[in-house]
Amino acid sequence: MKKGLIASGIVAIMIVGGIGITTFVSDSDDTTAVAQSEEFDMQKVNQELSAITMNVMESLNENYDGIGDILSEYQKSLTIKTSLDATEESSKEIALEIHKVVKDVLESGELDFVSNIDSYEIFVESKDGDIIY
């Protein structure tokens, strides 16, 4: 009788241990899959933002002096930092032109692979951090 109980106890421990190991391994695979998926998503986000920034910067540098950083918020906005003086009369007109160039870049076929490209708002910022357009 004791041998039967001991054998049953050992089998039960082996089964519970096997389920625990399987669950642990399954959770580990799920965690790895999620981490790989998040890494892929971040790679895609970085690739898209890099392509947008490079294309916009290239187009603006061809036509305008004083273009600084481009700040981007994924699928929300692009802020073009400039050396424009918000108090100068011509700054608003130049900011409008910059806005149009950026919009043309976003609508060009070069960025067709970017998801939700039409969701970006475009802001042009003065040297003092004021939004001109």
TrEMBL record:
It comes from the Bacteria. This is Uncharacterized protein.
